[in-house]
Design brief:
Strand content: 15-25%
Structural class: alpha/beta
Shape: globular
CATH class: Alpha Beta
CATH superfamily: Peptidase S8/S53 domain
Helix content: 25-40%
Number of helices: 8
Order of helices and strands: HHEEHEHEHEEEEEHHEHE
Oligomer: single chain
CATH architecture: 3-Layer(aba) Sandwich
Length: 288
């Protein structure tokens, strides 16, 4: 049986799967701890990968920490009857391993990975359309900001989680980067009842919210896990962007720019009544 987790259903992804071809043809660059590429629902999902960390050789993007495998499953676990289904089951992942053995990311490694992904080309000349970056820091790094601007100039939509330092008070700002850069799509978290998650950051750069509590996904050793955090909203939003990209390209008969894809995502939101600093435009819902 294919299990469609609640978070995929909440944003109504299955209702647009047929028309969007489940994200087929869209390449998402995933900046993570690596991915278990032979997980039963992830085999064949990865179009390429490279390791920019100190954990293994450049060709070794295996996941020894587990977080990346979980992010990959949320985004693109395929519907093969063996487990959960991701948000965009036919999207392809370019895995960029940027976390070292200690679970930290070096700025220079992250920037190298971003530039690699910007200019990467697939076997059929595919290009990256979306950056999914489930990572963050309280520090503002100008070099990181410049790398994000390079991605956007190259028509890549950059998506980050808002951060997990929130206090459910929209009047107090919790700042995390790169989510707070204006060029980045910053995604906050809601729980299964569509309430703002207790940990989700609030600030004026929040673009919208997505499920981020009790998210069932893939885990190392071909297992499954349930986790919470705004990192989980990143692959949900990235998968949604892949679906919306295909919907709109069919409708308009051409490829979408980064700004057009961002606009189309924001159009597919429903206000929850928490105010802009907590929810941005509202909850991501793919049917209008």
């Amino acid at each position: 049986m294919n299990e469609i987790p609640y978070h995929v259903q909440m944003i109504k992804a299955p209702e647009v799967w047929e028309q969007s071809e489940q994200g087929c043809g869209v390449v998402v660059a995933l900046f993570v701890t690596g991915v278990q590429d032979d997980h039963p629902v992830l085999e064949g999902v990865i179009i390429g990968g490279r390791n920019f960390s100190d954990d293994g050789t450049p060709e070794d993007y295996s996941d020894r920490l587990g977080h990346g495998t979980s992010m990959a499953g949320i985004l693109a676990a395929k519907a093969n009857g063996q487990g959960i289904v991701g948000t965009a089951p036919k999207a392809k992942l370019l895995v960029l391993k940027v976390f070292g053995q200690d679970g930290s990311v070096k700025l220079e490694d992250l920037i190298r990975a971003m530039d690699y992904a910007i200019f990467w080309r697939g076997p059929q000349n595919e290009r990256v359309k979306i950056f999914a970056m489930p990572l963050g820091s309280p520090m503002d790094y100008p070099l990181l900001h410049e790398a994000i601007k390079r991605a956007v100039v190259n028509q890549i939509l950059v998506i980050c989680g808002a951060g997990n330092e929130g206090d459910q008070n929209g009047a107090t700002n919790e700042i995390a980067y790169p989510a707070c850069y204006p060029e980045v799509v910053s995604v906050g978290a809601v729980d299964p009842n569509k309430h703002i998650a207790r940990f989700s950051n609030s600030n004026n750069e929040i673009d919208f919210v997505a499920p981020g509590v009790d998210i069932k996904t893939t885990a190392r050793d071909s297992k499954y896990i349930t986790l919470s955090g705004t990192a989980s909203t990143v692959p949900i939003a990235a998968g949604a962007a892949a679906l919306v990209n295909n919907l709109c390209e069919k409708e308009y008969g051409r490829s979408l720019s980064e700004s057009e894809l961002y606009f189309e995502l924001c159009k597919r939101t429903v206000p929850l009544g928490y105010g802009k600093s907590l929810e941005g435009h509202g909850l991501l819902v793919l049917t209008r």
